[in-house]
């Protein structure tokens, strides 16, 4: 590789160590032989191994860290293990010391506690890597090292490919360099080692990778100029000089590209523009390369215009071009706007067209199918484009194709004319917007493929053509935060086109995320939103885009979109549906957050006998519905943009909303039957998954059927604390009660009990007691129908009094609850709950043995009836009683810690977020009591953050152990070390911090 010197014809200025391989004097390429091995592309998920085979492990750090093992992605856990692995990968195969890991990962000095945390985290990472790869994390006397060959990491592979793409060439074809540099840049997904922030540990290596990327971007455009792709290179360079105005190489290439495009005046103007920039801002003249290029342009050096004939990229060893084949420049124009993302999809498309002769790009309206096809076609000299969006008559399909490929009109047999024109060509025929012509395409596409062996057809359509040999590439919307271009990045790029010099603020970024979420990441919708940037700010657009499509603009003239608005694009999709499928679709828009097939079957129109599976499958095939099968059970979802359009055109919205609300009621009633048995966790998971639909149904019923809303909210009285929206649940219960003063006693009592539950979990003990007393006042002790609700209300009264430290009243309430249970045969969960109150009485009496025995019995009863939350709550209460023992010492604190670890494990499987926060709060006290003060402080901060967001009081169980414990806990927490600010800790990281620290403590000798 040439490390110094000048490009032939023009000296090159720059100190990166990498030099371009092209001459401005004809751009004679000297790049290496065409890459055909596994490094020549990045389509294959399995990476080339060090011995030429397939790598079983591949580590990605050019963006958020990922590890692929045998083609699958390893689950690394939360931020801590990800930062640790990133720090080890930055060691480039050398050992990283424990002190460095403590500083980089934990931002702390190396202590015994941090050393234990490192060991625990390394153990988890080894488990994540699996038995076959755990040995990659090696322990050395100096610390730990990640044993990876350069080709087993994206930064090693990236560096190698950039070196090859910019190294000393061996022939005159720059296409190999283009492919190598494109494949290198495709590895880049974001900021290298992003998990490590601004750590000095990685700053040098990150700067090197960033500089190599800048070089690769520049030399990719040099290679494109060398093979005649002048327009594409100029478009990219025009943007890149704005992004990095002091990199003279970019101005050099841009000026040359403009000169070759016949824009000599513009080229000289750009050279003078960069001179003014450098002199004005840096006080320096341009380097020798720019000065020499300007002189050659002024004398019209003819060698600047010499360009070699481009080599068709479709040529393959098994398909040599025919002797009379025309070598033409690209026939399909590239759109003038910059493509954001889609590198992976372009790579997949290239692979599909290499493997199949008929490929169809499918996807919903506005997802960018046409744009992807045009981007691919613009890179080829052998592509022809046929736009079919405005073609309404199937009879005109063959004549339209014949005119596009042959340039002549024939009234006799246009299909034969097209086949004759294509018979000896190796071409790609792009058929854009085919969804309305799928039947006619079978009579045209299949004969052409049979009669033209060198022909390949690339189609775009909302759904597959259904033809023999067809390969389908389904295009998804842009992600909000992804590896390969994001929806927000697209929005910012298009806003800048309308507002020169605009720089997004933090508020703009937040608004952009809102806009892109509301628009499902659809590129067309995002571009239309950006078109409004001339008149509104992003915050204004975000405020209206949820409900008003007129918050979006219209496509620019010359846009690749065949539709004048997003509404037109979505409407076109729905208009093509058969009547029965359209009727089913219009019943699905009220579902928020998705739905199962049973829900769709429940709401489908009564006047249709259509099988629901067939109808849903047809809607998925036609790209108006998505199906997620990742959980093992299919869940369907309408894009938000389609939902809003369907709502707008639904001829009977009221009936549709009634059908949706009726399904929610039946679903809730069905799952509520499981609350008192061993399938409680299953019911909570199912209801939590439908929470968005439940909210929508209750909102509907509060306006149209308030009695139904009251019944639903009351039945769900324990869901509001299990699934998390505690304050929201309490507000809904109160609204429903206020709306139904004359509702049946049982429904009102259930809602009051729900208010008591949510108030207790929110720390509002006065409201909890008042609601429980109100429920008891409504219920009749002599009516067996009221038995379960009566006992439930007794339990809530006991809990409220325990939270209030009401000694004598609490004793009386607990004994009354136990007596009420003895007179009946209550469900197991109520018998276990009654024992919790009795345990409080024993604690007040100072009978520690009776406390332990009562709560152990409560746990056994809960386990026997499947009341798993009851098992954990019994452990949590016993842990607090143990922590209340000031004389117990470390042994008692360790026993409490073991109980809390077991409780947290149970709560994790429920879900039961509110009570789990209570267990973690007790865990803070246990850790602090055992000397793990730093971890206790961080855990306390995380628990407080999550409790504030969910509206719960994590310390409520502590109060049952008396005021002395509460005072001691307050002093203990005040003495914890301060915790630096930063982003709130994720839930899984909070749990991992607790269990990891507890494990390290219990492992101590």
UniProtKB/TrEMBL annotation:
This is AAA family ATPase. Residues 71-146 form the OmpR/PhoB-type domain. GO terms for biological process: phosphorelay signal transduction system; regulation of DNA-templated transcription. Residues 153-298 form the Bacterial transcriptional activator domain. Pfam families: AAA_22, BTAD, HTH_77, Trans_reg_C. Keywords: DNA-binding, Two-component regulatory system. It comes from Streptomyces broussonetiae. One of its GO terms (molecular function) is DNA binding. SUPFAM superfamilies: C-terminal effector domain of the bipartite response regulators, P-loop containing nucleoside triphosphate hydrolases, TPR-like. It comes from the Bacteria.
């Amino acid at each position: 590789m040439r490390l110094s010197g000048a490009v032939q014809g023009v000296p090159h200025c720059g100190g990166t160590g990498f030099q371009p391989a092209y001459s401005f004097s004809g751009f004679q390429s000297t790049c290496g032989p065409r890459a055909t091995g596994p490094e020549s592309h990045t389509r294959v998920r399995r990476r080339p191994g060090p011995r030429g085979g397939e790598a079983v492990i591949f580590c990605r750090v050019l963006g958020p860290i990922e590890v692929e093992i045998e083609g699958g992605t390893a689950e690394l856990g939360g931020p801590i293990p990800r930062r640790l692995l990133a720090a080890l990968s930055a060691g480039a195969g050398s050992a990283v010391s424990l002190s460095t890991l403590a500083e980089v990962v934990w931002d702390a000095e190396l202590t015994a506690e941090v050393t234990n945390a490192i060991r625990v985290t390394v153990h988890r990472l080894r488990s994540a890597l699996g038995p076959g790869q755990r040995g990659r994390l090696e322990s050395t006397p100096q610390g730990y090292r990640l044993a990876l060959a350069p080709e087993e990491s994206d930064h090693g592979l990236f560096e190698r490919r950039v070196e090859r793409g910019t190294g000393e060439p061996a022939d005159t074809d720059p296409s190999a360099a283009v492919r190598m540099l494109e494949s290198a840049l495709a590895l880049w997904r974001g900021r290298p080692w992003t998990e490590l922030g601004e750590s000095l540990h990685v700053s040098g290596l990150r700067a090197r990778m960033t500089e190599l990327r800048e070089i690769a971007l520049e030399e990719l455009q040099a290679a494109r100029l060398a093979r005649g792709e002048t327009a594409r290179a100029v478009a990219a360079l025009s943007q890149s000089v704005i992004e990095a105005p002091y990199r003279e190489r970019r101005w050099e290439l841009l000026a040359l590209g403009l000169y070759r495009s016949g824009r000599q005046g513009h080229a000289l103007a750009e050279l003078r523009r960069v001179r003014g920039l450098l002199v004005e801002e840096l006080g320096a003249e341009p380097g020798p390369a720019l000065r020499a290029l300007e002189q050659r342009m002024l004398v019209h050096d003819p060698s600047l215009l010499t360009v070699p004939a481009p080599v068709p990229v479709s040529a393959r060893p098994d398909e040599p071009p025919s002797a009379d084949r025309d070598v033409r420049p690209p026939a399909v124009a590239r759109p003038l706007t910059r493509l954001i993302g889609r590198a992976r999809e372009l790579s997949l498309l290239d692979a599909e067209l290499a493997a199949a002769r008929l490929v169809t790009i499918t996807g919903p309206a506005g997802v960018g199918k046409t744009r992807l096809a045009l981007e691919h076609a613009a890179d080829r000299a052998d592509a022809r484009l046929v736009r079919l969006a405005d073609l309404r008559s199937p009879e005109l399909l063959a004549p339209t194709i014949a005119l596009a490929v042959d340039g002549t009109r024939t009234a006799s047999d246009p299909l034969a004319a097209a086949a004759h024109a294509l018979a000896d060509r190796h071409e790609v025929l792009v058929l854009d917007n085919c969804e309305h012509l799928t039947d006619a395409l079978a009579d045209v596409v299949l004969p052409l493929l049979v009669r033209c062996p060198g022909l390949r057809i690339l189609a775009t359509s909302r759904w597959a053509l259904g033809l023999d040999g067809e390969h389908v590439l389904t295009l998804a919307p842009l992600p909000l935060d992804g590896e390969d271009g994001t929806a927000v990045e697209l929005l910012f790029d298009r806003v800048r086109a309308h507002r020169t010099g605009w720089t997004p603020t933090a508020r703009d970024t937040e608004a952009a995320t809102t806009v892109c979420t509301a628009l499902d990441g659809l590129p067309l919708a995002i571009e239309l939103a950006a078109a409004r940037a001339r008149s509104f700010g992003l915050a204004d657009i975000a405020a209206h885009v949820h409900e008003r499509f007129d918050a979006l603009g219209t496509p620019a003239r010359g846009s690749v979109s065949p539709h004048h608005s997003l509404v037109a694009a979505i409407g076109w999709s729905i208009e093509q549906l058969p009547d029965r499928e359209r009727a089913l679709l219009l019943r699905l828009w009220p579902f928020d957050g998705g739905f199962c097939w049973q829900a769709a079957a429940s709401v489908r129109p009564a006047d249709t006998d259509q099988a629901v599976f067939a109808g849903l499958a047809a809607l998925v095939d036609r790209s108006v519905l998505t199906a997620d099968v990742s959980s093992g059970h299919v869940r369907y979802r309408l894009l938000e943009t389609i939902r809003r359009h369907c709502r707008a055109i639904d001829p009977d919205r009221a009936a549709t909303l009634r059908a949706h609300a009726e399904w929610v009621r039946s679903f809730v009633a069905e799952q509520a039957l499981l609350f008192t048995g061993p399938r409680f966790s299953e019911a909570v998971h199912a209801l939590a998954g439908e929470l968005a639909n439940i909210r929508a149904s209750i909102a509907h019923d509060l306006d149209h059927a308030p009695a139904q809303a009251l019944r639903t909210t009351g039945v769900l009285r324990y869901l509001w604390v299990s699934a998390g929206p505690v304050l929201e649940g309490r507000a809904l219960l109160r609204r429903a009660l206020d709306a139904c003063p004359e509702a049946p006693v049982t429904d009102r009592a259930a809602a009051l009990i729900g208010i008591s539950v949510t108030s207790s979990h929110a720390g509002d003990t006065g409201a909890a007691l008042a609601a429980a007393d109100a429920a008891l006042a409504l219920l009749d002790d002599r009516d067996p129908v009221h038995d379960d609700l009566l006992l439930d209300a007794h339990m809530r009264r006991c809990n409220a009094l325990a939270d209030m430290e009401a000694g004598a009243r609490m004793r009386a309430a607990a004994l009354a609850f136990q007596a009420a249970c003895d007179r009946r045969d209550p469900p197991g969960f109520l018998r276990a709950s009654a024992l919790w109150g009795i345990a409080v009485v024993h604690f007040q009496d100072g009978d520690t043995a009776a406390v332990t025995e009562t709560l152990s019995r409560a746990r056994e009863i809960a386990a026997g009836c499947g009341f798993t939350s009851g098992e954990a709550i019994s452990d949590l209460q016993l842990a607090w009683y143990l922590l209340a023992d000031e004389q117990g010492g470390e042994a008692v604190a360790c026993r409490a810690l073991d109980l809390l670890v077991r409780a947290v494990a149970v709560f994790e499987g429920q879900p039961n977020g509110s009570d789990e926060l209570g267990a973690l709060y007790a865990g803070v006290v246990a850790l602090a009591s055992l000397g793990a003060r730093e971890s206790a402080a961080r855990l306390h901060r995380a628990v407080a953050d999550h409790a504030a967001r969910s509206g719960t009081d994590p310390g409520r169980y502590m109060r049952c152990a008396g005021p002395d414990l509460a005072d001691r806990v307050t002093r203990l927490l005040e003495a914890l070390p301060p915790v630096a600010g930063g982003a709130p800790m994720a839930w899984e990281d909070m749990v991992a911090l607790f269990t990891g620290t507890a494990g390290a403590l219990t492992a101590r000798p």
